[in-house]
Write a structure and sequence with these properties.
Elements (H helix, E strand, L loop, with lengths): L8 H21 L9 H14 L3 E2 L12 E4 L2 E3 L14 E10 L2 E10 L5 H18 L9 H13 L3 E2 L5 E3 L6 E5 L16 E4 L2 E3 L5 E3 L7 E3 L5 E3 L2 E5 L4 E3 L11
Antiparallel strand pairs: 1-4, 2-4, 3-12, 4-5, 6-10, 7-8, 9-14, 10-13, 11-12, 14-15
Helix pairs in contact: 1-2, 3-4
Bound molecules: 2-amino-4-trifluoromethylsulfanyl-butyric acid (MF3) and cobalt (II) ion (CO) (2 copies).
């Protein structure tokens, strides 16, 4: 098995800058998420923002993916393709997932947005998903097992009556889009590989209102939806293992203290 890359200080700084830019693209887009706009319009704004900042979108052309970000509304779990045909409406929730390449380094982050007033269950799903990512991040420190990330996420999500998607995972990131290891969001305690300083990976739990299983759209080959057509939410950060804990590299809002 290919081993997990330990990044050099120079690589860490490059990935930090790229991750921050991806997060700033999400900060930037928030003012434009409104009823009546298409997801293709949001994608175009993100593409322009990334280009203005000297980077490119990693998703464009990645295994044939046609757009500069993934936009996944409501029952779409992940990999939604921005489209002129998808018009946002009051009550929608959506994940926007941006991966940048800046000076050759990859940063990957996503978060949820709401269009106007949303239902109580949609609000709860978003808050449980956001907190599950925080719990996962708090497991990041040298010597801990990767499996403990998925262990705490799954335990918390199930206690709140929702389910963890097991068909898509987090991943090492930084010098390529997807590196080892695979970061599972539901896992056994003390399973998997051990975290070491200089490792960089994403944690990106996808949490479903109902059943965990997903179905990929047969026509476009990308859009993953909940099999039961109920809601799904996701947050994603790019995280560095520091000598004493973690640094969230895609934290543009200073939400997380560096440990
Ligand atoms: N950004 C996604 C992730 O978190 C991957 C998108 S791949 C694409 O891993 F091809 F769908 F864009
Ligand atoms: Co990712
Ligand atoms: Co992503």
């Amino acid at each position: 098995m290919e081993s997990i890359i330990i990044k050099t200080p120079e690589q860490i700084e490059g990935i930090r800058r790229s991750s921050r830019l991806a997060a700033q693209a999400l900060d930037f887009i928030s003012d434009y998420v409104k009823a009546g706009v298409t997801t293709a319009y949001l994608d175009q704004l993100i593409d322009d923002f990334i280009a203005r900042n000297g980077a490119v979108a990693a998703t464009k052309g990645y295994n044939g993916f046609p757009k500069s970000c993934c936009i996944s509304p409501n029952e779409v779990v992940c990999h939604g393709i921005p489209s002129e045909a998808i018009v946002l409406k009051e009550g929608d929730i959506l994940n926007v997932d941006v991966t940048t390449i800046l000076d050759g380094y990859y940063g990957d982050t996503s978060r949820m947005f709401a269009v106007g007033e949303i239902s109580a269950v949609a609000r709860k799903l978003i808050e449980v998903t956001r907190h599950s990512l925080t719990l996962g991040i708090q497991q990041v420190r040298p010597g801990n097992y990767f499996g403990n990330i998925g262990f705490v996420i799954n335990r918390y999500v199930r206690a709140n009556g929702f389910s963890v998607v097991y068909e898509f995972c987090g991943h090492g990131v930084g010098v390529r889009f997807h590196e080892p290891p695979q970061v599972d969001h539901a896992a056994r305690r003390n399973s998997g590989e051990i975290m070491r300083p200089g490792m960089i990976f994403t944690i990106e739990p996808m949490i479903n209102e109902g059943r965990p299983s997903t179905v990929v759209d047969k026509k476009d080959g990308w859009t993953a939806r909940t099999a039961d057509a109920r809601l799904s939410a996701q947050f994603e950060h790019t995280v560095l293992v520091t000598p004493t804990g973690f640094e969230v590299l895609s934290d543009s809002q200073n939400e997380y203290l560096i440990t």
